[in-house]
Amino acid sequence: MNRIRMYIDGEWLESESGRTTDIINPANGRKAAEMTRGTADDVAGAVAAAKGAFEPGSPWRSLSADERAELMVKAAELIEKRAEELAVAETNSMGRVYRETRYDDVYAASGAFRYYAGLIHELQGAASVENGDMMTVTVREPLGVCAVLAPWNYSMGTMAAGMAPALAAGNTVVIKPSSLSPVATAMMVEAMAKAGFPAGSVNMVLGSGSEVGTALSESVDVAKITFTGGTATGRDIIARSATSVKRYAMELGGKSPFIIFDDADLDVAVDRLMFGIFLSQGQVCIAGSRLLVQDTAYERVTAMLKERIPKIRIGMPLDENTEFGPMVSKRHMERVLDYIRIGREEGAKVLVGGRRITEGAFGDGYFVEPTVLVDCDEHMRVVNEEIFGPVLTVQTFTDEQEAIRLANSTGYGLAGGVFTRDMGRALRVCSAVDTGIMWANTYMEETPGMPVSPHRQSGTTVDGGLDGLKEYTVLKQINLAMTPTKSDWFTGMVSEGKDNR
Ligand code: NAD
């Protein structure tokens, strides 16, 4: 798929704007594909299609829950059938290495469809007969048109994590992928169309955040906006959504603390630390980007980092042996290099890495070395701001209280990890650190189906599990009188001995 079009009301369309955006392969700076660039008018068309498909009696609304689940499982199968193509497309547009896109991203996407298809019958309400002659029931109804906006990193998984529960609950969707990585998402939509999702139930618009994204935030016909991306963008979307009082789910940025005490198994801790910060070149929302290490373990931990980091296999992302590839774009590479410069100016020292890789073929792409900055403190920008790259900052602490205070010293609350052999201390730290996910003696391992909620400026939603599915429904209360009786309120006939006030 070299030219990506929009998918609206069951048709693959070019935007009337006639404009296109190039998708650049960050491993070599060459054009990998191009996409039509939509406008606010295209958004209006897609939202109208989704609204029409949500009307009672439409082909989509006429499907039973089992039929919806069947479509979702079929889509999952078709996604997996094209796993190789999807992985290559994603690697070529955003640089995430093939071993991650092929064996993680594709199955995260298909898995979300399978998982929510399996939960489809769990959306039950409640019933009460406590007032004797009246039964009150609550039912969970779909919201209507749900917009799903995804970032460029982990784009297939993120998009599916928004679309799958929305569709399982009976909503229709308008999705917008990032202009940096729309190719694999378009292939997912192809799979959904082939699976038989009725026209209008799934729509995809393409274009910039400032034009297409804002139009979705402001649309009065969008009932809910699910956004995964940066905190600043999230603030803008929340403000624009207010005019139509729409619901929103925000999965935003992070600056996650990775705490190592001196009694930890340092071999395991440093292995997990490297996974936590250098996976996908640090372009992961839950990256453990702030190392807080007990002063008594500082020398040992930094020596291990110095010894192990140069052994990371940096290479072309399509090579199955490559462990570490390029940054997503030239602009993002420059931003990451800027932060390394800012860190130095603030007084940090580069322990490992710190520069762009320009030798040989790397010079055509956007590669930055895995980098460790030591001598950092809580007032530095590099410690407080999300760099979203392969840059680990290192701070020391002396005791548990100080570790907790430093862990909570940024505005983010996405994730964190603690390594210690003292399980009492692990539990205390997990409970005191104000984040949505904590790991003790591991990092980035999750149990599928367990819900998660970002804290503080990292977001406002519940993602995953039955709790996550319920977020795509609204409760309705229905009261049923078993024996119809008059209220006797405005009859003017006050019954004897009864005060009608
Ligand atoms: P971004 O905020 O720049 O863009 C995300 C999406 O929003 C894109 O599709 C973009 O086109 C669109 N957009 C941009 N401006 C918009 C606006 N004003 N209105 C509406 N839409 C707009 O983020 P990014 O650079 O694509 O992704 C990186 C960020 O995503 C990081 O901050 C990372 O932490 C975050 N992220 C969070 C999670 C999570 O689960 N919490 C997961 C992945 C990524």
TrEMBL record:
PROSITE patterns: ALDEHYDE_DEHYDR_CYS, ALDEHYDE_DEHYDR_GLU. Residues 12-478 form the Aldehyde dehydrogenase domain. Keywords: Oxidoreductase. The keyword Oxidoreductase applies. Its EC number is 1.2.1.8. The active site is at E251. InterPro entries: Ald_DH/histidinol_DH, Ald_DH_C, Ald_DH_CS_CYS, Ald_DH_CS_GLU, Ald_DH_N, Aldehyde_DH_dom. One of its GO terms (molecular function) is betaine-aldehyde dehydrogenase (NAD+) activity. It is an enzyme of class 1 (oxidoreductase). PANTHER family: ALDEHYDE DEHYDROGENASE-RELATED. Belongs to the aldehyde dehydrogenase family. This is NAD-dependent aldehyde dehydrogenase. It comes from Bifidobacterium stellenboschense.
